[in-house]
């Protein structure tokens, strides 16, 4: 068949050749054709008698896209390409629930009731006596009399066998409950792409968190809104953003109000029930007029805390390849805080009441301009870039107090400029990067400006030949910078230093620092170096050292009835930071992926210089126990009362057989840890993922002021256990230097209560006696999640359950040693009725669409 076709073609070939005729073809042209051309173009591209015209292309486009329109004007070919437009809409919804329970609590005794020793016997003394101590008789030796009694529906306590036969009840005056939290958030985002380039963008985020906290009658509510809109106009990217956030709390804790409530609850004797009512007649019902019923403080107190924040910003940006890039950002931030945080009439510390209204308003305008450009050296292995940034900030903070009427106004404007040059060298197995720069800091509140704040950063990556995935990396950096304390950061917490521990219930932070002006800026000098490596991204190792020097640090000092900021001195911190990461992607057969990160962090700090005449500056705490800034000592060492010791360090014992306290305070502890290790692990199997976080902190001391006060009032389990100890001989020497051999009873009923082991040393005892180690090993979190992808409106569903603060092992006898004193960030190492940490059980649902 194929042979027949080729034969037929060969036979017709001569005829086809004879049919060809060589003749010039004349262009076909007519008046009608010319008229039609003239209608489409003012200047005809083709004229009679011409074969073609050369046209200029006005705008070129990628031929892979379609054509929207074509026109010819004045010998110019105008082609309008068709750019595809794609609208991408996505979003997510998250909802979560959590339950919170208190974790560690101090051990309280339930064996002994309100009272003290009288006439050689332990005697119950009821609320009408205003007794504060729980050094009364054993609860098991008492019963109710069943007679009407204003302070207890069961009657008074009388010796067993003389009442109605109902044994004395152990009332548990706990202010804590199982807290609950509900949170939800909605996020929507829309992007319009033209020619696969983002042309328009819009997003909105809404969120709310409502919580009944673990403290009774205390709630919180948080709302937030974020809206952003952006567009690309030719070569410019313009974006605007607005943020609103609102926080509401039923009680503020700026003055330690919640800590005070917790203190009053656990000091309440086991024989008194706060739950039977917090009013009696026209006054407060409490176990003593010198103490408070926790419910009286929490209910109908008129307290609140409100915080609102609004932030708006506008961004103009040019970010094109091979061209000068620049970014200009303007933002305005406005924050207000309003709180009522006083005490109502009838309170123990303020019988006539002490209302306090506080209003705070912060404003911040910021302008940030940045330019950058790539630098070409004409070689493929060398490249670089230059960048410059200018930041102008204008801030104002106003604080107004009512009763007393104190007003404070702070203002600051700063100019910061940063210029840097970066160069890279990439050649075979070597990759080297070098950054050099300088900063400028100018402020109207600083005594001088600084125009030379250099910075340098060097990184070297080495990939050995035939290394099979091995990478080695070396980094080092140095920088100097100036800074000042933010004027919107209230320093009123420092007022606590004017109160001793016994007067802490009267703490009222109504004085701020007088000014932030005419102070030398705090100078920072940082150096760090590290080496590291990786193998096929499965094993990564980094080990680094760092040094941080702070000069002219600022601390508040009380002078002439006011708080004044002073440049106190310098301190240096040196440390190491090691991290190892292991990653196993698994195999298709096992489908198990694991990742582990082990970190080790350790540092030592030391005060290296102090301003003349200021070698002993309290930082935070009380007037009798506080953290301190002392030359030659670690930053924030704990200072307080100590035992009197001889030249050899032995405790000196008094004539009555009890140790003596020294007249002057001394250094009693260092809150800084020796090191911290963290282990984070992840296991992924199919659509399940399990995360866990473990932490070990070694070293660090903590003053247990809570235990000291519980001992003083006889409410601690330790005081209940030890009050029966007799003929105890304290180790030490007598005042004449001889070894102590005088036996003592910790609590002898024949002696006044003020002579016992704990009351004799005062409200918070001898601070040195209550220093404890604050090491810990904690299982921070475990989280299990499951993800299910979809191909419809809902793209992904994620379910997760987690437990936070699961387990804690520590030799410290109080609450979680990580908790802060009155929420003060500078109070590390101090515990005075710190609120307990919570264990959280949470469940979350997340939808992506």
Automatic annotation (TrEMBL):
Keywords: Signal
Residues making up the signal peptide according to the UniProt record: 1-18
Protein name (Swiss-Prot/TrEMBL): TonB-linked outer membrane protein, SusC/RagA family
Organism expressing this protein natively: Chitinophaga hostae
